[in-house]
Structures are given as structure tokens and as C-alpha cells.
């Protein structure tokens, strides 16, 4: 800032600031030196101008000074006036004080003469004031019963309890104990204490089960009851994906009981709503209450109205709840205003606080225990009945779709029937799809993805979701009651005893009347267990027997007192529960067993009516029950306080897992083993099935003719693995079942295979090491599936391929003569081998896919298992590897079938072609037809190709029939060496034979006709060389040295051809040409 900044210059003369800014600040220096300025003017060329400039600056400064003086002058005047007024007031005050001192001295003299009389008057006024206060209190207490009844009618229970407690304390005062007119009020207050208790208990009971006015789940449950299921008529429409409420985490994690000060008692106030007993105006108090009530109802409207979002709840969380609008402010009320807990949790806290103020904690706990089981049973039953009525009302429009829809693995029925001919649709009077479904021990409805499984899962999800939300309320109330247990009123009966052998905290159990979180969890899980038993049709006798064994086992594990004293080892969940017994004075019945309505013993026998919703019931519904129970257990474990953390590891999940292990899995194994046995032992199990005119399709649903037995086994294996997917913990056992079934099926397939190839030459040949090695190196084997994960050995060098093929042909041709009894003459056996090969490959691919799916499914399960409890994790990766090994075994047998077929066709070719060596080709005239053995061979090739076409893919048909051409070519070439003579007509006949064979092989769509033509043209070219003169033959050999081998050229010279002269040195000349 500059030196002249901040001067009080008026806005009209703002230009002065600019003028001041142009003045050098050196003029305002504290020690001003004028010499430099004088020297500057004297030495300046324009002295008059410089002097005039200084004069202008001086005028500016004088004008600024004038402005400053005018600005401060009025302020100085006002300050002087104020100081003069202050001086005058001080003078007047001093005079008044001196006068007051004189008056006080006179008053002291006058009062000192009448001191005793004034004291008496003061004492009398105090006595009269006390009498008036007592009369006001008596009058107010007389109105208390009516006011309490009014508060009860308006459900202002906390205000009613406050008023009752304050009135009771006032009646105990020394001045009011002897007032006879208040005896009736005392008796009425005693009666009202019981009335308030039962009203509070009823309201608490309603909110415990989400039926109260402030329950969080009440509105959502009623809305869901009106929803129409959109899947099928038997599907349960309850949404089971409700997020877990945060109320338990708030109460348990932040220890809200201590923070809110709920255990600090209450602070008494006035009867009429004031903060003291001075008798304030009631109308004013009512105005305050009405205003608070309006605010409170606005708050509840915001919570329940609209979409009921959490945001609205947070907005009103710090307002006074509507049920506390008439309450006298105290510590509890302040804690409610400051609490961030949801509205329904605040209401439960208020009800428990009321019970504590009444001294009825133990009695309330006993009554809650008494009504817990009947209420839960009624809630579950009513929920099921309501949904059953809804299903019945909508069944007319949905039922047809439910019955006609195909679900899960049972899609095969319609797909298989779609491509079967009318003649083949029925085998032994039963359709193929019907046969497949008949081998399954469960109906399509009860399949892993059937409607019964879906309905059971949705039903249990909805019921367990309701139970979880109810248990959340019980956790809140249970912890509150335990924390309030030490504040029980002395008038509460002390003879309340509880026999709960699973709870080691006997003192806490007594002060809460037997009620605890552990007890409520046990009863809730007991009812859920009974519902599950009804769904599974499990007999109580079997469950009780299992419970006895489990109890004995658990008892033998904890003999020491130290273990018995630890709360986390105390609760064990049996298959069947026994209720806690509570003894209350003057009651000769067991509250838990009988209940208020005396319906306790009949509750478990009435059932739940789940059959009205589920299309079927039975033990196979255990798969759909497993996951909901796991989710239920996880939610329960997350809600339990640390003291009861061990309870989450036992209970309903233990029951379900033991039931699955001891009952479901053995039953399933027996049923499916019977189905497998029926599938593979049926006469039609390994009977090829396909229409004669049908073509091969790679998809089953489009007509791939997989053998009925293998198709049924694949069906059963997928179904069993479907059960494994529903129960990951038992996936290892179920996969072992599948392995057992696949092993038995493999043995049956091996038996069928051996029946077709036993003692046949083709089967023995593929078992020879040298031939097996050559067949593996044969380039034609590239189309075969890879057994044991090894790639087929395919060489890229054509010379090596030719050598392997020639060596294999030489080995087979060396087996001549081939006997007919060593060949498979029954075409049905060949068709069986073809169908068996394709079916085995289909099953192998299916098993391999299932194994990979198991690996993918096991990874997320194992990852989740690291974060969750160990009770539903899959710990072994062996099953997928074993399934892959079974797939390799099936694929290897399928390859053996194809190898047998290929070698069989090659041996058939050799069997027919070996007649060339015994026939003389010296015909007198040209024959119009090929030889009979060629006609027989080509007919057989065509017939077998047509019969096998529906059962194997084109590439496999190429493999089966692709070896014929090379064998026929080599046999024809070698046949010339055994011939003694041949004429022109004989050469033409051999060429005609090759043409016929070429036409038969080219007719097979999967065979490369160009390769066949090239090889058989090679044969015709070779035999046509016999018609050339010797010199022309030498010229041909000279030009085509590598077209045939030296032996083949030599064989051309050995055979006698009429009209052809061969010189004596013919062999030497040919050898000379070939040796160049």
C-alpha cells in the first residue's frame, strides 16, 4: 500500500487519489531532505515549469488535507458530546446512590424492631405453599389412571410407563402415604401395571414377528403376498434376494446399548408433563404434545410412504419418534433422538425399556418363550396357505404351460421324438424318449432343474427369509433383555426357573425368564426343520434316532467341566428339538408345551400344508433345500453376537448335511444304480437305431443315433452331476457315483464289443504291436480322436506316409489266404461297431465337458470357501481328473471299434482280391461285366456304406473305407507276379475290375475320389504295359523310371502274353536302364 492509501476522500473527489498517486512518496518521508529538490530546480532548464509543478502538487495536498479535516470534524464533535453526557450521568448516579444509602439505613432501623413477627409470617407462608403443592399433587394423581388409559389407547406406552412410575414414586412420599383417598388410586395403578405390561407385550410380540405398525418387513410382506408368480403355477414367487438389514450390525458392532444410555434408568418428571412438581398448566403441555405428535407422524409418513428408501429414514432419524411424542424428556428420549438405528429397532428398544421400567423382564421373557413356537408355526402355515390360494386362483392360465414345459436335462424327450420315424418311435411298446425318462429314478418335475425343485427352493427361500428377519428382531430384543436383566423389579416373582441345558449362563437365563438368543434360534430352526421334513417326507422316527446318535456322540466329546463351561461349546442342534421348560408360580402347566391357546402339543402334528404348493414331495428335494439352508446359516452367523458365534456352526445346516449324507446319498446311489443297470441290460440298449434313409447328424436333438443304453447313461450321469452342482459339498461323493456308473457301462460296452469281434482276425491284428504302431503312424489316423490327451503322430513327409502305407499293406497281404470264418460276415455286428464307436465318442465328449464344467464350478466355490465357513466348500480337485480319465477310456474303445472296421474292410478286400491269383486271364472274348469277386466286393462296400452312413460321421466313414483303395491297388500289383499268362482280353478285364472298384469307392461321399482315381489309374497303366511290344516297353521304362519299382517292371517281363516276344537278355536290359 502507498503512503496516502486509506485517506477519507469523498467519492466526488476520487480524482484526488490519482493525483496523490503521482506525487513521489519521498515528500512524506519522516526525515525530509529538501536539498536535492532545490538543486534539481536550480539545475533545471525550465525553472519556472518545475516550480509551477511543485506548486500544483502543493495545491493537491492542501485540497486533500481540507477533505480529511472536514471528514473527521463531525466525529470529533459527536465524541465530545458523548463524553459530556457520560460525565453528567455519572454525577447523577452518585447523587442517587447517596440517597439510597440513607433510605436503606432507615429501613434497617425499622425492620430490626419487628424481626420475630416477620419470621413467623415467612414460616406460615412456606407451610401454606407446601399444603397447596400437596393438594395439587393429590388432584393430579387422582387423574393419573384416566390419563394412563388414554395414553394406552393412543399406544403411547413409554409415556404411560413414565406416568405410572412417577405416580408410584409420588404415592410413596411421606406426606401422601397416609392419605386415605389415594387408596383407590393405588389399587387402580396396580391393575394398570398389569394392563400396561400385557399391552406392551402384545405390541412387542407383533413387532417381533414383523406384524406391528412400525415393522420394517410388514408392508413388504403384504405386498409380496399379492404378487402373481410369473414362472409356473407351482413356483413360489417370494423374492429371496433381500439384502441383509444393517440393524444387527449397528447394534452389535457399535455397542449401541451403552452408547444410547438405555441402561441408565430414567429421570422422573412431573405428572402433568412438566419438568418439576410445581403444577404447570396442562393446556400448555397438551399443546406441546400435539405439536410433537404431528412432527412424529410426519416422520413415520416419510418412512413408510413413497418407496420407503433408506434416505428418508436417515432424514427423520434424529427426530422424536411418534410413539414418544407424549413422553417426558429424559436420557432415554435423548438417546432415541441421537440414535441412527432404523425406526423398528428404536421401537423394539422402547418396548424393552418399558418392560424394564415396569420390572417385568423375566415375565416378558417367559411369555415370549411360550408363544415363540406356535407363532412361528402359524406364520409359516399362513404364508404357505396364502400362496397356495394365489396359485389356485391363477392356475387356469398357467397350469398348462407348467405341465407341458420341458425343464433341465429332460429336454431330450421332445428332441428325440422329433427325428424318430413312426416305426422306430416305439421299441418294445415304449417310445425311446419314454424309455430314457423311465430309467431315471425321478420324474421330470423332480429332476435337478424340475419345477418341483424350483418351487421347493423358492418356497424355502421365502420362508427362511421371513425367519431371518424375525430372528433379527429376536437378536435385538434378546441382547436388550439380557442387558436389562439386572434391573428387574423386586416385585417380580423370584421363583422363575428355566431348564435349558444348552445355555450355561443360568443366571442370565433366569432373569430373562428363559428367553435368550440361543433359545429363539433353536426354536426357529426347529420349525424350519419340521418344514423341511414335511417337504422331504422324512419320518420323525428316523430323525429322532439320528438325534440320539448325535447326542451320544457330542456328549462323549465334552466330559470335562472346562469345556462345559464355555458358552461357545454349549449348544448342539439335534434333528428334533425339545422346548425349554419354564416353571412359573401358581401355574401347573408347562408354558412352552401348552401355550396361551393350549395348542402347543398339536402344532407339530398339524403340518404346514406345503403339498398345496409343491407338485411333488420327497427325498430328492433335499438338493433344492441345501443352498437356501447354507444361505440361511450364513445370514444367521453374521447376525449372532460374539457370545453366540458357535451357534451358527450347528443347527439346521448340520441336520440337512447329516440327512443328505445318511439318507439322501445312499438312496440316490441305490436308485441310480438300478436305473443304470436297467439302461445297460435292456435288450434295446445296444441295438443300433436309425432309419434306413436317414443321414448322420452330429447333434442328438437333430437325430444323432446314439445307442439307447449309452444315451440313457449320459442322461443319468448329467442328472447325477446336476445334483452335485446343487450340493457342492457332496460333489465328490456324487462324482464317485458317476464314475461307478461309467465303469459299469464301460464294462458292458466292452462286452458288446467283444461279442462282435471275438476270434475275428481284424481284432487280433489291431492288438499286434507292429500293426498298431503302423496304424498310429498312418496319416489316415489323423481323423481319430486323441486318447489320453496324446496327439496323433502325423508325418508331413509324403515319402514316409507312402512307406508306412506300403508296409501296412504288405503286412496285411502277407496274411493271405484269408479265410471267410475269420471275417465278420454279419453286417449287423459291423453296424453295431460303427454305432458303438460314435456313441462312445459322444459319451466321452459329454464326460469331458462335464469334467471341465466341474473344474470351472469348483474354482468359485473354493474361493468363496476361503471367506466363508468350511461347511459348504469343495476341497478336492480329483473328481474332474477322474472323469477325464473315463472319457479317455471311452474314446480309446471308440477308436478300437473304428480300427476294427477299417482292418475288416481291408481284409474283406484282400479276401475277394485273392481270387485274382487263381484265375487265368486268357479269355477268348471281351467280357462285358467285371469279375464276380469284384461285383461281390463293390456290392458289399456299397451296402455296408449305406448301412453305416447314419451311424458315423463322414470323416470316420472315410477312415473305415479309405484303406480299401490302397489294399486293392497293392493286391492287383502283386497279383501279376503270381500270374503265368495273360492276354489282351485279360488286361481289359482287370482294367474293367479297377474301374468298377473306382466307381464303388467314388460313390462314398466322404472318400476323395481324385485320390482313388489316381491310384486305380496307376493299376490300369501298369497292366496296359503288357500290351506294348518289348522295345516300346523299354522306351516307356526309360521315360518313366520311377513310375513303378524295379520288381514291378521285372514282373511285366515274367508273365507270358500271346503275341509278345521277350528277348533272353530282357531283364538285363531293363536292369541296366533302371540302374542309371
TrEMBL record:
Q: Entry's Pfam families?
A: Sec8_N
Q: Which domain of life is it from?
A: Eukaryota
Keyword Protein transport among record annotations = yes
Give the residue ranges for region: Disordered.
Answer: 861-881
Whether Membrane counts among this entry's keywords is no
- What is the recorded function of this protein according to its Swiss-Prot or TrEMBL entry? Component of the exocyst complex involved in the docking of exocytic vesicles with fusion sites on the plasma membrane.
Q: Keywords of this protein's UniProt record, alphabetized?
A: Exocytosis, Protein transport, Transport
What is this protein's name? Exocyst complex component Sec8
